[in-house]
UniProtKB/TrEMBL annotation:
Protein name per its UniProtKB record: DUF4880 domain-containing protein
Positions of the FecR N-terminal domain: 3-44
InterPro entries xref list: FecR (IPR006860), FecR_N (IPR032623), Ferrdict_sens_TM (IPR012373)
Organism: Cereibacter changlensis
Stretches assigned to the FecR protein domain: 102-195
GO molecular function, one term: sigma factor antagonist activity
Amino acid sequence: MLEEAADWAITLRYDDPDEALLQLFDRWRCQSAGHSAAWERAQEMFRPPDPVAAVIGKAVLRRDGPSTSRRMLLRGLVLTGLVAPAGALALRKQPWRSWFADLRTGVGERRALTLPDSTELALNTATAVNLTFSGAERRLRILEGEILVSTVPDPAARPFLVETQEGEVQTAGARFGLRCLADARIRVSVFEHSVGVVTARGGGATLQAGEQAEFTGVGIGETRSVEDGAALWRQGMLLAQDMRLAEVIDELSRYRHGLLRCDPAVAGLRVSGALSLTDIDSALELLAQTLPVQVVRRSDLWVTVTARS
């Protein structure tokens, strides 16, 4: 069943399936709970930032088209991530780790909870976090996704740390957000007090309230003002301020199963306003009402925003 799910994942992502094929896929996915679960696991392999989809998949299929041998190679790589985690250790990120995280949200799900030290933690869509609280420190490790943290100084003077693949963020007490971006980048936004950032190679910086920056394992980018509405996802809203339509669609796609794409012909249209993250179909309809675009649904899992005909 996992092999079938891998085949469908590759076909829907890299081919141009017609309506008949999409209907066939829907029937396959709805056969049983096991089929749906296998499809969900296959989808995990293509969540950004994922090296199989973003790097290997495109490189393999780009060479003279999706030949049978190259398709079989990509299929094998996807299956490696699905059923043989030990064999996937050569990849920089392993999506399977998120399946066993201490705290996790699915696509479109948000979750808020209080940690043992009274820290308020919110998880955005498709987020996975591990917790390690000891007598010496309070540590979170974010594996994927986005979090919002509100913590206060600990009576035992334990620092609060958020560990990532690229480095860590440390504070005694602050309200801040952290998001894993594509290309191994981490964005930190500070809303109250301050945090320290240390990269994997030892570079460091301090961000004050109202500041944000992105970092990788090798360095920290320019400090900027926190974007308006950076934490509005907590209320289920996306605030677009003169954003490119392609960027808006990318954001909305984080909260929806399947493929949601923006046609390059309309990618540069500018969008301003508030959009719902709890009802993506309504958000798409609002875009269609306010911009010269239309929403083309080839199936529930294949949606494209194109120029209005």
